[in-house]
Amino acid sequence: xxxxxxxxxxxxxxxxxxxxxxxxxxxxxxxxxxxxxxxxxxxxxxxxxxxxxxxxxxxxxxxxxxxxxxxxxxxxxxxxxxxxxxxxxxxxxxxxxxxxxxxxxxxxxxxxxxxxxxxxxxxxxxxxxxxxxxxxxxxxxxxxxxxxxxxxxxxxxxxxxxxxxxxxxxxxxxxxxxxxxxxxxxxxxxxxxxxxxxxxxxxxxxxxxxxxxxxxxxxxxxxxxxxxxxxxxxxxxx
Length: 238
Known about the structure:
By secondary structure, the protein is of the alpha+beta class. It has helices spanning about 35, 40-45, 55-65, 75-95, 95-105, 165-180, 215-220, 225-230, and strands at about 125-130, 140-150, 185-190, 205-210. The chain is globular, with a radius of gyration of 19 Å.
């Protein structure tokens, strides 16, 4: 049962950034988590897009340097759309993870090997795609995700990568992105385990400031983020 709404529908957080004709008396099921367990997301969803300030490239660099991926956030309307879309994926595919592995990555079977040979030196072991639901950052920043078929080892006590895993990713990022874009225009990070939206498939994030569009097309194979497709009405079919 949807929670009781003590506020008029127009002021309820789930109606912010929604046309008045689509306002509802009760909270949609895909947003009830923000009432029960996530006040941070509730605050974001309560913010009009017109009041949202995108994080700048220097701010992004600082958050990565300080290992604070928890301070990234999405544009309010994008967060709402993301949660709605994830709920639809669970309904149609059983889980977001299954959709990512089978549909986005094309790795089949809903499983990814934990141990493979070659690591990031073998292109068969990873895939670079657009972040389907990028953060609310400067629109000149391109947000990519590198998905891997193998586990990137981390210290369970700190959730940080082991020195060996960190060095492997650093080498890969230098060769793949820094060599083309310049060191001051590239950052990378892996989310803490507790922050990962897709827990079962290993991945790390790469952000590029104002990169050459053709280079991005080449490294992603011309991939288009799901958010962009959904906003155009093309991505709701999963």
